[in-house]
UniProtKB/TrEMBL annotation:
Short name of any one Pfam family annotated for the protein: EF-hand_7
Protein name listed in UniProt: EF-hand domain-containing protein
UniProt superkingdom: Eukaryota
Domain EF-hand residues, every copy: 5-40
Entry keyword Coiled coil: yes
Amino acid sequence: MSPTISSEDLYRIFKKLDKNGDGLICLQELKWLFDRVGVELTMEELESFLEKPSLDFDQFLFCYKSISKQNKGECEEEDVLGCLEEDDHEEDMEMICMAFKVFEMSDDDGFISCDGLENVLARLNEYDQRLQQSERQRKVEVQALKHQIMELENRFEDRFKTIMTEMHKRHVSS
């Protein structure tokens, strides 16, 4: 009998499956995992078995234990973690290809040219300069607003003093 997967590893698996971070995994994500590790269930069987559209971590643990018992512990940790790492590797490769295309630009020859690199760096520099300019503009606007607030406070204070002085004069003269 194969060793069972630890709760800590199951939690890591759960977190990887929970793409949107809401603390739940949907049946499609669970089915994907089962398919990858060789547990053959149809979507209908999974829906019937779980009777829920999504699972929290405790429900995921219960599901794992139930299915592991049915398969006599044949879901090994290496299989489950391996399929998640393969998926991460695929996502990483997609990101690398996208980044490569940014640098490669339009010649599609499979190489990053000096011109392509200079072009991207120039665009990044322009973007950085625009961000700095925008930040300077915001600082100027904040200073102007602070100045306006100080002027309003001074006018309010002056007006308040005038009103209080007039009220005091009226009170003393009556």
